[in-house]
Amino acid sequence: MKAFRYLSVGMQNIVRPARAWAGPLHVQVEVTTFCNLDCVMCSHGTLIKHPRHMGLGSFIEICEKLMPYKVSMNGIGEPFLNPEMLPMVEFARDHGIETITTSNLTLLSPELAEHIVHSGLGLLKGSIDSVDPQTYLAIRRRDMHGRVLEGLRNVRDAKRRLGSRLPYVRLQFVMQRANYREIPDVLDLCQEYGVDAIYFQPLDLINDNYVTDAMVSELIGDMDPVSFRQVLERAAQKSEHGKIATNLPALFRDFDAVWEKYRMIKAPDPETAVCMMPWTSLYVSVDGDVRLCCVFASSPEENLGNIFKQDFGAIWNGEAYRNYRKGFSKGERPNKLCRNCMAPTLGGMMKSFKHSKYMLK
User: Fold this and answer.
1) How many domains does the chain fold into?
2) Strand positions, DSSP E, the chain
C-alpha cells in the first residue's frame, strides 16, 4: 500500500494534473506561534499579535484526515514551547509517521533531550547562524548562544547514552552580511557537537508585506558577491573532507542563482526549477489554514481553505489549488512568493539522497 501511494504521488509529479488523484505524502504543521527569540530576519514580531498553541487533538485530527507518511512540526514559532509537542511526536511515531521539527535549540535541557530521544523524533533541525556569541546576539536578539550549544550537547549525549541514532540532527545557517565569513568555521562546530548535517540557507526576502528597506540593509548591506563566492568555495572544499553532510557544493555550483535571490533581481529559470509541492505536500497553520508550503507561512491572505472547517478533498482539489497546479505545469510562477523560490529539481533532490535522506529541505 505504501509503495503504491509513493508511486501514485510520483506519477502526479510527472503528469502534473490540475486535479490530484492522490493526497499529500507530507504535511507541515504549525504547532505553535509562541517564540522566545526576536530574530532580525523573521516576521514573527510583526505578524503574530495573539500567539497560541495547537492542541494534541487538533494535531491528531490533521493526521487522521491526511494520513501523511511524514509530518514536519514547524512554523512561525518555537515548537518546544508547546507542552504537547512530544505527545504529538509520539502519536505520529505510533502510527508510522516520520517526524521532523525545526527548533532554535534554546530549550533543550538534559531532561527534555532525553525525552526527545525516547519520543522517536526522526529529524531535529536547529538554527545556529554564528559561531560567535556576539554575532548570534545581533541576529537572534537574545543572548542564548551558550544555550544553543548546551542543547546540542545534551541531545548528543542523550543519543550516546541511550544508544540511539535518532534524532538525526541537522543545523540551518541563514547566510547574511553579519555571518557569511564564518561558514567554514561552523563546520568545525558541527563536528564537535555531533551534528549530522548542516544546511546553509540563502536569505528569503520575498514577502513584500514584511520586508523593509531597513531589513535589506541590515541583512545584506554591503555584501560582496566576490568574497561571498570565495567563502563558499573554501567551505565547499573543506566539507568534502569531513563527515558532515552539507549543501555547500550545490550552493557554490549555483552561486549566480543564489546571488540573484539575495538581490531579488529575478527568479531562477522555470525550466531548471520545478516545484513539486502542489502534488506532494502542504502547510497547515496553527488555526488550520491550508497554504501551499512554508514560504507562505507568513501570508494568511494566501489561505486555500481550513482543514478544521472544510472537507480536505474540497480543499486539495478546489479551484485555488487547481489554478496553482495549472500554473506550475506551464512552467509559470503563479504567485509573487514563488518567483524567487529556488525550488529543487527532481534530479537535485535525488542527488541530496546521496548524502542523506534528511538533507532534503
Assistant:
1) 2
2) 26-29, 70-73, 98-103, 123-127, 168-174, 197-201, 245-246, 281-284, 289-291, 305-306
